[in-house]
Amino acid sequence: NLSNDQIKLLAQQFSEFLKVKSVDH
User: How far apart are CA 25 and CA 14, in angstroms?
Assistant: First the structure.
């Protein structure tokens, strides 16, 4: 099971990834 902290960290990384993708696009 993922802890809330791990989920938050993954969400942050994912949002950063989306930002980079949108800027790159």
Answer: 16
Distances (CA, A) of 23 to 5, 6, 11, 20: 27, 26, 18, 5
Q: And the tokens for 7?
A: 């989920």
Helix residue ranges per DSSP H, the chain: 4-24
> CB neighbours (10 Å) of residue 7?
10
Structure confidence by residue, pLDDT tens digits, 1-25: 779 999 999 999 999 999 988 876 5
